[in-house]
Amino acid sequence: MGRAKGRKTMSTKQAKADGPGISGADAEQGGDGTVGKALAVLDLVAQAGRPVRFTDILAISPYPKATLYRLLQTLTHQGMLAYDADSQNYALGVRLVRLAHAAWSQSSLAPLARPWLDRLSAELGETLHLAQLDQGQVLYVDKRNAARPVEMFSQAGKVGPAYCTGVGKAMLAFLPEAAKQQAVARQSFYRFTPKTLGSREELLAELGEIRKSGHAFDREEHEPGIICLAVPVLSSGGSVLGALSVTSTTTRNSLDGLEQLAPQLKACASAIAADVEAWRFPERKQI
Q1: CA separation for the pair 245, 262 (Å, rounded)
Q2: Above 90 in pLDDT, residue 250?
Q3: Domain count of the fold of the chain
Q4: Which end of the chain is less congested by CB atoms within 10 angstroms, N or C?
Q5: Are residues 139 and 94 both part of a single domain?
């Protein structure tokens, strides 16, 4: 009974903080082998957003106590997790930081987009986000703050929901049909604000409109007072590479005002996509 109560409390807090993450059921589907289980445990620790105790992880883990303990011991020994004996807390380890830095460096999108984001940021003076889709969720890979920064959830390296963010909807709308349906099925439709889309049907209807217009809005759906316009970053073949957004507040801008920036956003997204393709397929570059 105590464990069930803990599970409910943790998942509710996490939904409010970070949006739909990997649930115990999702973790269980991540793989029956040791590697799959270990990766699922890493995800659970990462999504807590803070150091967590064994009992906290156990409350949201699909694994038995003994199995979870062995996985945590292995991950700690390998440097993937760090354990503080005084507080009895687990946190992500330094080895993961090194791997994350290497992954960012080897990823073509974020490094190649950097100069384009710098240029667009100087032109617009508003907050910019660059994101990719990760298992139906939004992974923010880069950000440029406005001249007058706004406090908001999104930061580079954070994972957030796709169904109620501009970048998330921009990417979902341009996925192949089967991939789109699969990603939509993973959404929790937790209502962050009164304006959050609350069902699969609502989301699919909006994705159809986004595909026609080529851009998506966040109408205070994730955070009150925060609005954004987003466009997909698409390859020449139409594959989704990521999404780019401009974000503002309802006190200093409007959705109509942001929509006026769509041509600049789309031009920037096209330039990023062209650089990514040139990097991935250098033989296609004209000499």
Answers
A1: 9
A2: yes
A3: 2
A4: C
A5: no
Question: CA 246 to CA 117: how far, in whole Å?
Answer: 10
Residue 242 CB contacts under 8 Å (≥ 6 apart), including other chains: 109, 113, 130, 131, 132, 133, 141, 167, 171, 232, 233, 272
CA-based R_g, the chain, Å:
20
CB atoms within 10 A of CB 16: 10
CB atoms within 10 A of CB 191: 13
The residue with tokens 């939509």 is 184
How far, in Å, CA of 250 to CA of 228, rounded? 10
Domain ranges, residue 255: 107-284
281 CB-near residues (< 8 Å, 6+ apart): none
Listed residue (268, 229, 233) closest to 247, CA to CA = 229
Could you tell me the two tokens for 224? 């009150």
CA-to-CA distance for 161 and 154, rounded, in angstroms?
A: 10
What's the full length of the chain, in residues? 287
DSSP label at residue 253: -
- Name the percent of the chain lying above pLDDT 70: 83
Same domain, 260 and 123: yes
- Tell me if 30 sits within 8 A of 39, measured CB to CB: yes
pTM above 0.90, yes or no: no
Q: How far is CA 276 from the centre of its chain?
A: 20
CA-to-CA distance for 184 and 30, rounded, in angstroms? 18
User: Do 145 and 252 belong together in one domain?
Assistant: yes
pLDDT digits (tens, 9 = 90+) for 33-92: 889 999 999 989 988 878 999 999 999 899 999 999 999 999 999 999 999 999 999 998
Closest CA to 146 of 130, 131, 125: 125
